[in-house]
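seq as requested:
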Amino acid sequence: MLAVHIAALALALLASATAAAAQEQQGVRGTWWTKGKEARVEIADCEPADKGLCGRIIWLAKPNDKKGQPLSDRLNPNKGLRSREIVGLQLIEGWRENGANKWKGRIYDPDKGETFNISIALRGDRLTLTGCIVWGCDSETWVRYRAP
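struct tokens:
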């Protein structure tokens, strides 16, 4: 009976180590919940891949405005882009590795209509995005999305 318990424990440890290795190999690629689970962002290689990593909003908790219309990029400084829908919007571009589990790149914030340079750190299933401007820095943590 003890041998069965030891074998079961060994299998559980092997499965856990395999999942952790697969996750580390995946890095930041995949789908992430933003702060407060307001949106899901999919991060993948840009096209072409030499442009780093890109990401787009693939889901919003509240995708429509008060009139029932899809939310649009209404604060974009480029008036020609203000009609773009938020779902499907590319907000991450040019993320490049900057050390072990670290990246640097840019992110567009449609809530402000601004693009920021950020640093990104991955720790397990948590992705911390940190941006700094003249008077300080701010961070936000995203959590890896797991399909039910």
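The helical segments are 2-26.
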